[in-house]
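Follow-up to my post from last week.
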Amino acid sequence: MTAAPPVTKAPVIKARGVGRVLPGPVPVTLLDGIDLSIGEGEFVAITGPSGSGKSSLLYLLGLLDRPTSGSILLDGRDTARADAAELAGLRLVKLGFVFQFHFLLPEFTVLGNVMIPMRKLGGGSDAELRRRAEGLLEDLGLGDQMTKLPTQLSGGQRQRVAIARALANRPRVILADEPTGNLDTKSAQTVFDIFARLARETGTTVITVTHDEGLAAQTNRRVQLVDGRLVTHKS
Amino acid sequence: MARPLLLDLALTHILGRKRQTIVSVLGVALGVGFFIAMAALMQGFQGYFIETVINASPHITVRDQFREPAVQPVAMAFEGGAVLLHGLKPREEVRGIRKAGTMVSDLSDWPGLSVAPSLDGPVILRYGSTDRSVVAIGIDPEREVHVTQLEDDMIQGSLTDLSSTATGIVMGLGLANKLGAKLGDSLNAISPAGVILRVKIVGLFRTGVSSLDEGQAYILLKKAQILQSRANVINQLRIRLTEVDAAREVAARIEALYGYRSESWQEANEGVFGVFKIQNSIMYSTVGAIMVVAAFGIYNIISTVVYEKSRDIAILKSIGLTERDIRRTFLMQGLMIGMIGAVLGWMIGLGLTALLSTIRFDVGNAVRNDRFFLAWSLTHYWIGALFSLSASVVAAWIPARRAAGANPVDIIRGAA
Ligand SMILES: Nc1ncnc2c1ncn2[C@@H]1O[C@H](COP(=O)(O)OP(=O)(O)OP(=O)(O)O)[C@@H](O)[C@H]1O
Ligand SMILES: [Mg+2]
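User reply:
Got it. Predicted complex:
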């Protein structure tokens, strides 16, 4: 290693020959031979027709599901052998999910929802965690909604709370499954602006599934799936 | 906010179903409360009964009997062989405890033990035209007072009056009433041996045990021996211990040493203790049944919450809560219901026991007591709490496991 090669960022998340087959009398192949490497601070859109396996891939990359072949590497670590508790720990520390439906806990306030991952992880006094959660919410333009319950917010606001919750423990990767599916154009644009800023300013990797061509075009990279296989892989 | 996350989650879950939670808590509380009241009642009654038995009769009775039939000389000659005897006529022996005098003085030296010799036998008491067949017990009053607490049960006169009035008799008030006699009256005692003795009532007692109050009378040992025509014979040693619970072992030692049948108060009342055991198992099964019903309530509420909150569970898992965290969240809910139910049950139990203690009932004058005997014991409260906590944990365990094992992907797909 004498002459330093051009610095390529180490992949944060990597799929190596990943396949997912649903067992049963007639096994269903959801995904097949997926090779994918995504670096730090990349903003990636996963697109493809309905039923092509986009959600399935996202669950695998997010360690919510296990591949039936191949393996997922997170920060260079192979997760194939990790047990359920270890995977939960990795999700807590390194990953953040945003789904189409916001999935906020209805009994907790906006602030309470954002603090759930922080309280599980610990690493600070209650007051410190609260200040951090408040900072996140202010950053996402929710500074005046913090004591409200999720039912008192608009759809766009709820989705931003969900993003704040996904960011609570400063994850390496945000995984979003059609986060704008239920939003109007303006709110959808706000969400994508947030993602772009996150990737650019904090180096957080953002992987989002979307059906919207216009939004997908705003990312750095597009990954297209057809029938459970990757089609294009352009940057 | 300083509450741990899982406790916070558990609280929101059960507070979201207030009415169902209250019903479950009440179910547990009733079970615990009834158990406490029933236990107080039963143990109170059993304790009273045992105390009465212990106080009214000797702790150990040594009789002129053997547990095994006498070994025939021919069997001794062919030890280990099979012996068949026809037309055996056992020798008629003078019954009674041999060398009772030395036995009494030997046993008196044992620590914590008082012994009194006696001779009992049937007599008919005749007063006017009334006859009562009773057991007349000949005693040594100086020794007897150390052996039974009959002296405490005397309502008129005293056992020691037997010593000063040689022809005195002490009997139960019940017997005196049946005969129509009272203190100072003279009556005739007629024995199966045909001896008639004129005796005078010098004392009356009431133990509360009607078989004693109506069926026994005390006279001097010497007079009993005359009455039964059994000079110098003693057929019973009555023993009292300072350590009441040691009666079984001491009785066994005496029997091993002297061969005579020695019966502890426990053995004498075995039948009653059997009834107590049945009573207790009825109580525990009743409480167990209430607890099973309460446990179903808890199972029901937690299952409902698990079903209703399946999305929340999925999102919590995606956030990074482990299966253990989820399981704990729901187990905690069961425990909370169990704990609140137990505390409330303590209060119900306390209230019920207090209520029972105020009840008076109208009974004939044969028994001294007109109220429930209640035993207040902290142990009942702990057992009640243990009952409720284990029922609630078991009931919560099944849905908690289901929640922990649920696959978040399935739920999130289903919800999308
Ligand atoms: N549990 C299951 N049983 C049977 N088939 C399933 C199951 N889960 C997923 N599939 C099938 O797997 C394929 C991929 O599903 P997936 O949800 O990943 O697609 P998608 O690209 O996210 O689609 P959409 O754009 O509609 O969300 C689909 O054909 C779906 O019907
Ligand atoms: Mg999908």
